[in-house]
Amino acid sequence: MIVISKAILHIMDFNSGATIYSGAELDMGAPGTYDFLAGHIDKLFKDASAKTGQFLPESIFSQTASNYLDEHITFSDFSAGICKDLDTCLTDAGETDIVDVVVCDFTIETERYLGVMLYGSRPAYTHQVVNDGTAVRNEIIRHYAILPNPVQKVNTFALVNAASGELRFADKKRSIGGEDVYILPQRILQCSTNTSTRETVKLVTEMAGQIAENYGYSSTEAVAKVKSYLA
């Protein structure tokens, strides 16, 4: 069971150049809030494309996380610091959309984690009822900052095991100053990067197919058997 003790939402609006820091945590008792966050957290642990890693000795994020866990800084300050660093990096990468950042402190069974999830906005349509004094008119309007529903995939996130420091994360490649960068592992977390489950399966099955061909066997059959064993 996922128990979320703290969660906060900060908004980075790269259209207007404004970052809106929340001064209060999310109300976990509000309708839909827990289901939204818990649904995504559950999917993050099942994401086969996620990579794992450990903090490097020079990681500032690791030091700041330790300060929060040791109660030397508040959750609000901890989360705002993460958002500030993300804001700087995403600005350098030329981000133009609205990005919502959720930072949370939660446990699964007896394991405590710190989570950072980035939600990119997307346009969506809904209805609106307008009463101009003479008649009621139903209209279609467009929203620009719609969060994904709980079953949709979060493409950029980081989960930190509070006890071991083990990291689980996913990110997309961005360009900063002409250099391809993964902002989360390289700039924010400052951590090592291991191959994801999906990448490992792909590599192993490709090797199995090549070896089968070299020895005159069916590569299709070999790959099918390898996938079955791995599953």
Description:
The chain is of the alpha+beta class and 231 residues long. The chain folds into 2 domains: 166 residues, no CATH class; 31 residues, no CATH class. It has 6 helices and 11 strands. The strands form 3 sheets. A 7-stranded antiparallel β-sheet has the order 2-1-4-5-8-9-3. Helix 3 crosses helix 4 and helix 5 packs antiparallel against helix 6. The protein is globular and about 80 Å long.
Distance between the termini: 25 Å
Number of strands: 11
Number of domains: 2
- SSE arrangement, N to C: EEHEHHEEEEEEEEHHH
Descriptive keywords:
single chain; 231 residues; alpha+beta; 2 domains; two-stranded antiparallel ribbon; 6 helices; 11 strands; 33% helix; globular
Outline the secondary-structure elements.
Elements: E1 2-13, E2 18-20, H1 33-44, E3 51-53, H2 60-69, H3 75-92, E4 98-108, E5 111-120, E6 122-131, E7 136-146, E8 156-161, E9 167-170, E10 174-176, E11 179-181, H4 183-189, H5 197-214, H6 219-230
Antiparallel strand pairs: 1-2, 1-4, 3-9, 4-5, 5-8, 6-7, 8-9, 10-11
Helix pairs in contact: 3-4, 5-6
Could you give a short description of this structure?
Helix content is 33%, strand content 33%.
